[in-house]
Amino acid sequence: MEKRLDSPEAFLPLTPAVFAILLALADGEKHGYAIMQEARQHAAMGPGTLYGSLDRLVTAGLVEEAGLSEDERRRYYRLKGIGVRVLAAETARLEGAVRRARGKGVVTGEARA
Fold first, then answer.
1. Which SS3 state, helix, strand or coil, does residue 3 take?
2. CA nearest 56: which of 110, 3, 92?
3. I need a labelling partner for 93 at 20 to 30 A (CA). Which of 19, 23, 55, 71 fits?
4. pLDDT, position 15
5. CA separation (Å) from 104 to 18, 95, 110?
6. What pLDDT does residue 72 have?
7. What is d(CA 103, CA 106) in angstroms, rounded to the nearest whole number?
8. What's the burial of 12, exposed, middle or buried (CB within 10 Å: 0-12/13-18/19+)?
9. What pLDDT was estimated at residue 45?
10. CB distance 11 to 60 below 8 Å
């Protein structure tokens, strides 16, 4: 996932799991289990997917480790500036896809035959 850090679009499209992780972090830092609980509302994911994705996101510079809990059992993560921009770019991309679908008459929960 090594990309140019100045181009959010270079990271797109995001996988559903990565989008859900970035979205979970959009309102502030969280520890891994809290990220997984929130992200599971949007994408199926287990610990392997979560921590593998977090490692890749940290390596890519979208997310950073924010520290450890006092008992050092929980690692906290937060979005970096480019992570916020990538999340915004993916949200805009998805909104565009929804607009195109609606323009073709696709209605939530049903499709035209």
1. coil
2. 3
3. 55
4. 97
5. 28, 14, 12
6. 87
7. 7
8. middle
9. 94
10. yes
| Residue from 21, 19, 1 nearest 11 by CA | 1
Place of tokens 């830092």: 29
Asked whether 81 and 4 are in contact (CB, 8 A), the reply is: no
Q: What is the residue extent of each domain of the chain?
A: 9-103
Instruction: Check residue 4 and give its pLDDT.
Output: 52
With a cut of 50, which residues of the chain have pLDDT below it? 3
CATH class of 9-103: mainly alpha
Kindly state the tokens that stand for 5.
């850090």
Taken as a whole, the chain contains a residue count of 113
Query: 3-class SS at 6?
Result: coil
* Structure-block tokens of residue 9: 């679009």
Q: Under 8 Å CB-to-CB from 63, ≥6 apart: which residues?
A: 21, 22, 25, 54, 57, 77, 78, 79, 80, 83
